[in-house]
Amino acid sequence: MQSILIIEDDPSYVSMMDLILRMEGFDVFSTSDGLSGLAMLRVKHADLILCDIMMPEMDGYSVLEALKSEKKLADIPFLFVSAIGDRAEILRGMSAGADGYLPKPFSAVELLAAVSARIQRSGMIDPDQGKPFFIKE
């Protein structure tokens, strides 16, 4: 089972993403700021990180920069999830090294499509089925 860390300070988004992802069979854990997220990653493995940009303590760009500087954490796929959805901001996020960008608000279908696309690129594909492990018939 793949695990996903949500780093998000808006409890309504955390609840929504958590519910959707758990219903698809993911192990989900979350924190409300970047510092806590980094601390959690040092003790619990994540296969994917969904991270807001505007947060207290440490913003999403600082989280991504810190991840990229730690060899143990640098290869974890990272998606920005943010209300800042203009082209310049998306380009900034991708240029900083994010693997994707999901503008808020988004639907369950959009969230799952973003997660699925990232998982497929990461090679977490079921070799017998030819699809991500979490997709059910």
What does this protein structure show overall?
This protein is α/β, with parallel strands linked by helices and 137 residues long. The protein has one domain (3-132): Response regulator (Rossmann fold), CATH 3.40.50.2300. The chain has five helices and seven strands. The strands form two sheets. A five-stranded parallel sheet has the order 2-1-3-4-5, sandwiched between helices. Strands 6-7 form a two-stranded antiparallel sheet. The two termini are 17 Å apart. 26% of the residues are buried.
List keywords for this structure.
single chain, 137 residues, alpha/beta, Rossmann fold, five-stranded parallel beta sheet, two-stranded antiparallel ribbon, 5 helices, globular, disordered C terminus
At a glance:
About 40% of the residues lie in helices and about 20% in strands. The protein has about 140 residues and is α/β, with parallel strands linked by helices.
The gross shape turns out to be globular
Number of helices: 5
User: What is the CATH superfamily?
Assistant: Response regulator
Distance between the termini: 17 Å
Report Rg: 14 Å
- Helix/strand/pairing category: alpha/beta
Q: What is the CATH domain class?
A: Alpha Beta
Order of helices and strands: EHEHEHEHEHEE
Order of adjacent strands in the largest pleated sheet: 2-1-3-4-5
Structural domain tally: 1
Mean of all residue-level pLDDT scores:
88
Number of DSSP E strands: 7
Poorly predicted runs are 130-137
